[in-house]
Amino acid sequence: MNINWYPGHMFKTKKELKSMINLVDLVIEIRDARAVISTTNPDIESLTNGKPKIIVLSKVDLADKATTSRWIEHYRKQGIPCIDVDIIRNKNIKLIKDQINYLMKSKLDRYRSKGVKNYTLRGMILGIPNVGKSSLINKISNNKVAKVGNRPGVTKSNQWIKTKWDIDLLDTPGILWPKFESPNVGFNLVYIGSIRDEILDIQEVCYNMLQYLLENYKMNLENTYKVDMSDDVSKSLDILGKKLGCLSKGFLIDYDRLSHIIIGDFRSGKIGNISLEDPKDLLKEV
To answer: Which range marks the domain in which residue 153 is found?
Structure first.
């Protein structure tokens, strides 16, 4: 399965970022803690041209805490600053500022030695759609200056925003890469809402997601819906369809309606803290 979803504004944004990267001192890349591999745009490394980078894992309140810890350790071993943040609850936001000051200390010291005491750093926020870039900027700026929404493609253009940290941040539209070679990446991005639901058949999306949940988080499903789940995906869909009252005329299960409910429950965290990828999955790609 090849998913090709590359709106025109993403191509335009990519060209603009290439021309603007030399204007910034560092890059903050946002990745969704539930799907760290899938929310890593392979084009970002070449776009950022070796700029100092901080990886921020967002939506940790929805991710499996043990898996998130393994991701932090994974990047620590590579010498890459990585911070898990809960933007809503303000968890670890200040650690981003501390890491910026650490990475930029030598540069700021050089400016001070030249008599420039109030140098304002410039950073670029990068990431794919709907990972929380604008929400993080609003938190750092203490103001709702960036548009946010629980759907992909809300931010359509670049905008410079002043923050309370003596750093100006460039909020950028989420950019994907032209073609996903792995079907897992495409499905994961639909699960978390980084790609519009209409790109894939909703029943196919739900079937594949439920298969993963049954293999890895079966107890979460049973605790959430108060039913005994089957290891068979089709049987489990029927069980949930009846339990949730997703019945059409003739008491047939309305699988479209059921699919929207299950996917919505996953995205909202109702099914619990769930991660779709683990650092060990990187070994499978080698």
So the answer is: 8-170
